[in-house]
Amino acid sequence: MLIIPFIHRITNEKNMNVHNIRVLTIGGKYIWEESGDINCILSSNDIYHKNTILSDNIHLCEVDIEKTNMNDMYKWSEIDINDDETFCWKDYIYFTGNNNECWLNIPKNEMIGNTDIHTIIQLIIRT
User: Fold this and answer.
1) Helices H, strands E: what count in the chain?
2) pLDDT at 114 (0 to 100)
3) Using an 8 Å Cβ cutoff, are 63 and 6 in contact?
4) Predicted pLDDT at 10
5) Nearest by Cα to 29 from 104, 103, 100, 80
6) Which of 24, 33, 38, 90 fits as disulfide partner to 5, beta carbons 3.0 to 4.6 Å?
7) What is the pLDDT of residue 63?
8) Coil, strand or helix: which one is 81?
9) pLDDT tens digit string along 44-101?
10) Which long-range contacts (CB under 8 A, 24 or more apart) does 49-56 make?
11) Residue 21, pLDDT above cutoff 80
12) Residue 25 structural domain
């Protein structure tokens, strides 16, 4: 199963909703893949989540940033471009109008490993 911890913040700027979505990746290139109990997997990695959305074989896990020590984690900009082993947060920005019409979309061909990030972002925004 694919495990996608994420953080989603929305701000409103001049009649536009700005979605800041942070996704935990491996080197910014791959999605975490593991089998077992999702709660045990996350807690053993000191990641605490508020809820989990299951879509096909994907577990979207909204991270509880109050309980999870975010200072122990890397941002994608902090790791070497050739690093494909370090867990790091990769940021995406998505703009919508007040009626949730898309103003700026994530490219539909944007992939992390074999995962279409456009679809993942859409699932996150709908929650």
Assistant:
1) 2, 10
2) 87
3) yes
4) 93
5) 80
6) 24
7) 97
8) coil
9) 999 999 988 887 789 999 999 999 999 989 999 999 999 999 999 999 998 888 777 7
10) 49/5, 53/123, 53/127, 55/123
11) yes
12) 2-126
Residues 27-31: contacts with CB under 8 Å, at least 24 apart: 27/79, 27/83, 27/84, 27/85, 27/86, 27/88, 28/76, 28/79, 28/88, 28/90, 28/112, 29/84, 29/112, 29/113, 30/84, 30/112, 30/113, 31/2, 31/3, 31/4, 31/112, 31/113, 31/115
pLDDT at 102 (0 to 100): 75
Q: Within 13 Å of residue 4, how many CA atoms lie on the same side as its CB?
A: 31
Q: What six digits make up the tokens of 26?
A: 């491996």
Give buried/exposed letters for 97-125 (b at 16+ CB in 10 A, else e). eeeeeeeeebeeeeebeebebbebbeebb
**First-to-last CA distance in the chain?**
20
The pTM of this model reads 0.90
Per the structure, the count of domains in the chain is 1
Pairing of strands 74-75, 32-33: unpaired
